[in-house]
Amino acid sequence: MQxxxxxxxxxxxxxxxxxxAALLITIQAVLQQVTPITLKFVVDExxxxxxxxxxxxxxLTYLFGLIxxxxxxxxxxxxxxxxxxxxxxxxxxxxxxxxxxKKIFTLPQKYFDSEISGKILNxxxxxxxxxxxxxxxxxxxxLPAMLQAIFGVGVLCYFNMTIGLLALSVFPVxxxxxxxxxxxxxxxxxxxxxxxxxxxxxxxxxxxxxxxVKTYNTQKMDQVINKLYDKQSNLYHILNFTRxxxxxxxxxxxxxxxxxxxxxxxxxxxxxxxxIQILNQLRWPLYGMSYILEQIQHxxxxxxxxxxxxxxxxxxxxxxxxxxxxxxxxQITFTNVGFSYDTNLKILDDINLKLDKKxxxxxxxxxxxxxxxxxxxxxxxxxxxxxxxxxxxKNYSKxxxxxxxxxxxxxFQENELFSSTIRENVSYGVSVSERKIINALKQxxxxxxxxxxxDGLDAxxxxxxxxxxxxxxxxxxxxRAILHNKPILILDEATSSLDSKSEKLVQDALAKLxxxxxxxxxxxxxxxxxxxxxxxxxxxxxxxxxxxxxxLAHREGIYKELLNYQIEGNKKLLSEYELN
Length: 580
What we know:
CATH superfamily of the largest domain: ABC transporter type 1, transmembrane domain
CATH architecture of the largest domain: Up-down Bundle
Strand order of the largest sheet: 6-7-8-3-9-10
Number of domains: 2
Largest sheet: 6 strands, mixed
Order of helices and strands: HHHHHHHHHEEEHEEHEHHHHEHEHEEHHH
Number of strands: 10
CATH topology of the largest domain: ABC transporter transmembrane region fold
């Protein structure tokens, strides 16, 4: 029940609405007992009329009027309660989405490196859906069922204690059977969720890479999930038949006692009708108890992964306020920095590096040399295992993640675009005028092709910019970086080849972007390396050489070897260093 406790805790901002719903439900539950009691007096009055002819028709009219008014009130209250329940569930769903979204921003990068994005989304959607459904059930079903059971048994005990106690005894037996079945059902549901998360995650990967992957063998996992579905269904139907069969036997036995008591004169005809009506009303709370227990297990199982994410330790602080600018010229300093993803393998070892002023620095090294890891440390996506990093004199370990990233613009080789409009992609993260967006696009040599779209800035570019060419995607990213105008730029240069015209447009746009800022490039083109102010050569996690391009070209080392490979046209060896 830990999950339910957490749901209740998270719903505290809805407590005033829940209290209002509870009040309306209590009134409705009381009114639901009025009709059976009123019918008792109606039947007794009709019996008196049949036996003696002394019945009071005016009294019958008042009683039927009362039934009419009460039923109208119950209908109105029921509609209000359902609307209020949906309102509470909807508000809570939005609240939970915001909590989860903010939590995601505070999680360490290693969480995202080890999880499939589709799996994270599936856990989020299932968790919020199950919690909303549980809250809706609690307000629309759980409390009404409990109150109706209490008031119904109370009325039975008032008119006939024996029958009331017999009806009451059915509840614990029925609930015990339901609890047993739902606990077993819940265990299967948790196991099934693990497989479903993995499959849904893989499916999303396949869809996003559909050009490469036309088929994906998920049959094995699907078979496991189907078996769990079958097992769950069989268990449910067997136990459901058991409890319903037992319930019908108990009700028939109680009916026999009612008829016997009426035949013996211990109950009037009106009292018999009243008790039978109340008994039939008690079926709904009994079935409801079973449904409620199922919903509790459902919420427990389906929200487990959701709450596991919320319980993860936050390593970053989510910032929504405006952050102060750099007080000095940007300078990034690495002092004896080491890093490893685990204790057995060092990715970076004793890195000492100073990046300052307005220089363009190119990182060169074979795949796995540590270039991307170095960038990740600068972005504070990871903390160094040893040593220190500082930005303009501020130690990273004592500096807020958001402040560091507020001064860094990014252009990724993966072309990180969203399936929205060009306007939204360029202005992502800032609120600016259309004039500024157009100006950034012009500087990035992107406005000409944007203007050709029917919807211009509001043209949708598809998932990850699928409707754009490689060069167009890069220029949209460059426009975004120009618009943000950060003092530090990190460029993970695209490895894909472009046609000569697109290449020239991209390089011209980058040249404009590089002006008056500190630029750090993971280089994949020799032209980029040769135009850099400084080259840092990495090998097996260490800086093995550093200097201006013409200096490194004339001394023995990896860079000189790469130049020779370039002259020879040795694409195979160049590809090991991710160069083309």
